[in-house]
Amino acid sequence: MRIIVIGAEGAVGRAAISDLKLRHEIIVAGRSSGNLHVDVLDEDSIARMFEAAGAIDAIITTTGKTHFGPLVEMTPAQFKGGLDDKLMGQINIALAALSKLRDGGSITVTTGVTNRDPIRQGANTAAVNGALEAFVRSASIEMPRNIRINCVSPGLLDVSAKKYEGYFPGHIPVSSERVGFAYTKAVEGAHNGTVFAVDG
Ligand SMILES: NC(=O)c1ccc[n+]([C@@H]2O[C@H](COP(=O)([O-])OP(=O)(O)OC[C@H]3O[C@@H](n4cnc5c(N)ncnc54)[C@H](OP(=O)(O)O)[C@@H]3O)[C@@H](O)[C@H]2O)c1
């Protein structure tokens, strides 16, 4: 398969391709990293990416920034930032991919543990993850041309534990290898509308 992975040079992106790259052609995409540049917040940039990529069987997104901060200090603008970036960025790609992927292709988006296991300062990221998972479940029942859509929801990755130190008390970090197998299941398996949770 030819698979575009947007965010493939990030922590989750590297995990996502760790197993798939053994059997498939991976096109590494990112805003400034990788060999195909795209801004998932910009529809023209997305159109150019699909034009440049040619025929594609699967697309994986591992992008998205959300606001971490105390609820009582959170502003609507900070909250909206998470919606615009992590939610709309991945939905922009999914919507564009519907007419670009080969028949029988797949879309895999990325959420995270916070909407099933809340953390302090995580209201924005939890809301974004929940919305994205609802989109996947609903979109899956009207996918065209046998295209499938799924979601991988990793717990805190082992390689990111230091970066988020103090935010996830008691969470057992998950191995990048296990996270990689969840993306393999989403791409090579037959599921549609599934959220693959990877917890420690
Ligand atoms: N790390 C974890 O433990 C963990 C656990 C669960 C869920 N998640 C979720 O997984 C996602 C990725 O997290 P991460 O830790 O892997 O982040 P990361 O290391 O910062 O990587 C983000 C990747 O996304 C790309 N990217 C960011 N904005 C983009 C845009 N507008 N257009 C195109 N590409 C863009 C970046 O490319 P450039 O560098 O070229 O900008 C980079 O390759 C986030 O949604 C996060 O919430 C992470």
List the bound ligands: NADP nicotinamide-adenine-dinucleotide phosphate
Determine the N-to-C terminus distance: 30 Å
Q: Which regions have little confidence, pLDDT < 50, spanning 5+ residues?
A: none
Residues in helix, %: 25-40%
- Total DSSP E strands: 7
What does the average pLDDT come to? 98
- How would you characterize the largest beta sheet? 7 strands, parallel
Rg over CA atoms, rounded to whole Å, is 16 Å
**What is the overall silhouette?**
globular
Spatial strand sequence of the major β-sheet = 3-2-1-4-5-6-7
Separate helix tally? 5
**How much of the polypeptide forms β-strand, as a percent range?**
15-25%
> From the helix content, strand content and strand pairing, which structural class follows?
alpha/beta
Describe the structure.
This protein has 200 residues and is of the alpha/beta class. The chain contains 5 helices and 7 strands, in the order βαββαβαβαβαβ. The chain has helices spanning 11-20, 43-53, 76-97, 123-139, 176-188; strands at residues 2-6, 25-30, 36-37, 58-61, 106-110, 148-154, 195-198. Strands 3-2-1-4-5-6-7 form a 7-stranded parallel β-sheet, sandwiched between helices. α3 (76-97) links the parallel β4 and β5. α3 (76-97) runs parallel beside α4 (123-139). It is globular, with a radius of gyration of 16 Å. The chain starts with a strand and ends with a strand. The relative contact order is 0.17. The model has no long low-confidence stretch (mean pLDDT 98). The site of NADP nicotinamide-adenine-dinucleotide phosphate has 26 residues, from α1 and α3.
